[in-house]
Amino acid sequence: MRIWSLHPRHLDAKGLVACWRETLLAQAVLAGRTKGYQHHPQLTRFRAAADPLASVGAYLSGVADEATARGYRFDRSRIDHDAEGSASMLVTQGQLDYEWEHLMAKLTQRSPADAERWRDAVPQPHPLFRVVPGPIEPWERA
After folding, report:
1. For 98-126, what is the mean pLDDT?
2. In this structure, is residue 29 part of a structural domain?
3. What is the residue range of 106's domain?
4. Long-range contacts for 110-118 (Cβ within 8 Å, ≥24 apart)?
5. Alpha-carbon gap, residue 137 to 124, rounded angstroms
């Protein structure tokens, strides 16, 4: 499971769909609808939020917005708490940088045109996140 701190615009088509599916799974875990992935490290930051379901809902809304901008139809009715714009979380610059390198390696393999397009870009965070100084997050399995 990879719930990117990066803005969904940086993801290729496969990455965007995978992010949507994996975050829907995270939402199900947080809502207590599934027993799997209970201890997945990617859920740590959402569990630490004041309202985990609102935060994951805001995250899903950001992914759905990007899908809509690309002409895809992600089913927003699957978002339990569509709290777009009402939630905010922190992410460290080190985490964003780590994920950028990870994404560029993935794109180089499966979507070279996207890798080239983003080669000189400054990575932006998902709209849910506000970037603060710091190293890779402690929950990350680097």
Report:
1. 95
2. yes
3. 8-132
4. 110/12, 110/14, 111/12, 111/13, 111/14, 114/12, 118/10
5. 17
Residue 85 pLDDT level (bands cut at 50, 70, 90):
low
Give CA–CA dist 58/18, Å, rounded: 17
What's the alpha-carbon Rg for the chain, to the nearest Å?
A: 14
Q: Is the pLDDT of residue 137 over 80?
A: yes
Contact 91, 132 (CB under 8 A): yes
* Mutual angle of helices 13-30 and 52-69, in 10-degree steps: 160
Which residue in this structure is represented by tokens 């990066």?
Answer: 6
Q: Which two tokens stand for residue 1?
A: 């499971």
DSSP structure class, residue 125: B
* pTM for the full predicted model: 0.94
Percent of the chain with pLDDT over 90: 85
Query: In 3-state terms, what secondary structure has residue 56?
Result: helix
- Here the tokens at position 51 are 């309202």
What total number of domains does the chain contain?
Answer: 1
Give how far Cα 13 sits from Cα of 18, 20, 63, Å.
9, 11, 12
Domain membership of residue 113 (yes or no) is yes
